[in-house]
From TrEMBL:
Protein name: Beta-galactosidase
SUPFAM superfamilies cross-referenced by the UniProt entry: (Trans)glycosidases, Class I glutamine amidotransferase-like
PANTHER family per UniProt: BETA-GALACTOSIDASE GANA (PTHR36447:SF1)
Domain Beta-galactosidase trimerisation residues, every copy: 396-601
Family: Belongs to the glycosyl hydrolase 42 family.
Enzyme kind, highest EC tier: hydrolase
Organism the protein comes from: Enterococcus diestrammenae
Length: 669
């Protein structure tokens, strides 16, 4: 639905309200030198638009829009509801959130509204209605940006009430709730709806952050994600009433924990996200995050924010090195981004973000390294062909990301405190990234049939429906891979009985009765017929194969020496692999060699050179990116291709300077 016909959106957050109006034109004169064609405005302006209850004043925003129009910069217009105005919090304290300790917050910070406050809903609705009615005919607007980086949780009385309503809708009866949560545990049996409270520090959450009743905690997370989604949808619907065409979005945050983005994605016209890698984020994790965002809709997305040089909210906000911002921008494009936007266009003079990087820094000079690099990139992006923007990515491998499993797994008390959902999923992504194999991240609701390999690491929660789908996929020739702590419970955290992993035992051809947990220093060697193949860490499943064959077994550090730890089970015409431990690099390489062979997938590249291909019906664009600081040399995979950025024919050997990017275009007749 997004219309990218005018090329790649290049720009970002701009907060002119923080500056004297006399400075605006100078900003635009400079920004246009960097080919900036878009500004995201009005993100935190509610008290300027409504200085007192019911009194609206759009004059300043009118002038900002007029300036943008005069300078031909298009607009991503935010709805300004991401921070509660002081008068609103002062007059109606209930609009603010109550934290997990039960403390009602006073006015301050941002992303601070209770999603279930009737007053917040009413007031934000009234504001958005007026904003959209006023600006929807303005042709400068390319996108609507609802609120900002939704997230966080509220535990107030309004949320408690709304939670009970949500539970009634989901379960019908209180008896069904008691049953789903198995609330007879520790005397939690509820006799009336009013007895149910949000799980929080003053009720059912331990100081570790973990809950007594896993089902209740899962439902509270679902409910809070849904509550914020209702806020989004309310604004979305108002915009749609006035504007039937322009895409509506909000900015996401990669693998954050609070929101089930797969549930949100159908409500957004285009996915937009904010990419803030830190000093030690590997290129493969950034790639993983882009792919997660693309996977939400299986469509191109917007790189809504990145910093041109440094963040300010991390321990060490290292500067991006010369060429690194350019490389990261192309990496986003390679994974499906169709915009390159920054936070922000002009650096704040004060406030919490004054040391956050911007295109125009405190020097307000166009001669800075940062400005020059941005300007060079802006020039390059403006030259890219339209076909690139219309191209798509079609990997052969699918990796399931499941927010419910994320919540459920990390709520587990035992077998270890070291359960990290994202790290576990990313580990398998990385194993393929290192082999140059592209991955599509999917939800459990997606169709698995297009893929040769389907991986579901740490997929803690399973249902009959998902299990049947995975079985059908495997029986029909697919290769399935899963690992320790997967397939263990139902949607409300009840263990699937009969031996682990419950519903998947037949598919995997094995059963597990016990899971050992071992400190990091007590790794276990893993043996195959050819010798030691790696080490297992942290958790070790005691596997009894039924129809599966063992690929490797535990060494003599344990009493379960000789018991299987890696297995493969031929199932229909496909195969299901099981990994009963967290593998070290050697173990993972041993496993993946067999998995790739069985899936008939071939490795492409290795090391710090990333290769991704975007295709249209007639053309392909292969991005070859040196993500690191050392020069690299690789054989050109498509020596007859045309190099887009230098507009030359490409050589047989590709020499890649640090952070270098090559885009090879091929035309297929
Ligand atoms: C987020 C927000 C922005 C800004 C940046 C700073 O992404 O959306 O408003 O605070 O972080 O990195
Ligand atoms: Zn609340």
């Amino acid at each position: 639905m997004t219309d990218y016909s005018s090329g790649i959106l290049f720009g970002g957050d701009y907060n002119p309200e923080q500056w004297e109006e006399s400075t605006w034109q100078d900003d635009f004169d400079k920004l246009s030198q960097a080919q900036v064609n878009s500004a995201t405005i009005n993100v935190f302006s509610w008290p300027l638009l409504e200085p007192a209850e019911g009194e609206y004043d759009f004059e300043q925003l009118d002038r900002i829009m007029a300036h943008l129009e005069h300078n031909q910069i298009c607009v991503v217009l935010a709805t300004a509801t991401a921070a509660v105005p002081p008068w609103l919090a002062h007059k109606y304290p209930e609009v603010m959130r109550t934290d997990i300790n039960g403390i009602l917050q006073r006015h301050g910070k941002r992303h601070n509204a209770c999603p279930n406050s009737p007053i917040f809903k009413r007031k934000s609705k009234a504001l958005v209605e007026r904003l959209v009615a006023r600006y929807h005919t303005n042709s400068l607007i390319t996108h609507w940006h609802v609120s900002n980086e939704y997230g966080g949780t509220c535990y107030c009385e309004n949320c408690a009430k709304a939670f009970r309503v949500w539970l009634k809708e989901r379960y019908g009866t209180l008896e069904a709730v008691n049953q789903a949560w198995n609330s007879h545990f520790w005397g939690h049996t509820y006799g009336s709806w009013e007895e149910i409270n949000p799980p929080m520090r003053t009720s059912d959450i331990f100081s570790s952050g973990k809950p007594v009743l896993g089902g209740a905690a899962l439902d509270y997370r679902r409910f809070q994600s849904d509550s914020l989604l209702e806020n989004y949808k309310m604004e979305r619907d108002i915009i749609r009433k006035y504007d039937s065409k322009r895409p509506i979005t909000t900015n996401f945050m990669g693998s954050q924990k609070d929101l089930d983005y797969f549930k949100w994605a159908p409500e957004l016209d285009v996915i937009a996200w904010d990419n803030y890698p830190s000093l030690d984020t590997p290129a493969s994790f950034t790639a993983f995050s882009h792919d997660l965002m693309r996977g939400l809709k299986h469509q191109p997305f917007m790189l809504m924010e990145q910093t041109p040089n440094q963040q300010n909210w991390q321990t060490y906000n290292a500067l991006k090195k010369p060429g690194e911002m350019r490389m990261l921008s192309y990496q986003a494009l390679a994974h499906g981004a169709n915009t390159v936007q920054f936070f922000q266009l002009k650096q704040s003079r004060n406030g919490a973000e004054k040391f956050h990087g911007a295109l125009l820094s405190h020097s307000v000079s166009t001669q800075t390294r940062v400005f020059q690099e941005v300007a060079q990139l802006g020039g390059e992006l403006a030259q890219l062909p339209q076909a690139l923007i219309e191209s798509e990515i079609h990997p052969n491998v699918a990796l399931i990301f499941d927010w419910e499993s994320y919540w459920g797994l990390e709520n587990c008390i035992g077998p270890t405190t070291q359960l990290d959902y994202v790290a576990s999923v990313y580990r398998y992504y990385q194993a393929l990234y290192q082999q140059g194999i592209a991955v599509e991240i999917v939800s459990k609701q997606d169709d698995f049939s297009p893929y040769k390999l389907l991986m579901a690491p740490s997929m803690y929660i399973t249902t009959d429906e998902v299990t049947e789908k995975i079985k059908a996929y495997t029986a029909a020739g697919g290769v399935f891979l899963t690992n320790v702590m997967s397939g263990l419970v139902d949607e409300t955290d009840n263990i699937h009985l009969g031996g682990y992993p419950g519903q998947w035992r037949e598919l995997l051809g094995l059963t597990i009765d016990e899971i050992d947990a071992r400190p990091a220093a007590q790794a276990v060697t893993l043996h195959s017929a050819t010798g030691i193949v790696g080490q297992g860490r942290t958790l070790c499943d005691l596997i009894t194969p039924t129809t599966a064959h063992s690929l490797a077994w535990y060494g003599d550090e344990t009493f379960y020496q000789g018991q299987a730890c890696l297995t493969a089970n031929e199932y229909g015409t496909g195969c299901a692999f099981y990994v009963g431990t967290y593998l070290d690099d050697q173990g993972l390489a041993f496993l993946m060699t067999q998995v790739l062979k069985r899936s008939q997938l071939a490795a492409k590249a290795a090391g710090e050179v990333e290769i991704m291909t975007r295709t249209t019906e007639n053309q392909s664009f292969t991005f070859i990116i040196n993500t690191g600081e050392h020069p690299q040399k690789i054989m050109n995979p498509y020596p007859d291709a045309y190099e887009l950025l230098t507009q030359t024919n490409s050589p047989t050997d590709l020499e890649l300077a640090p952070f270098a990017v090559i885009i090879l275009q091929q035309d297929h007749e």
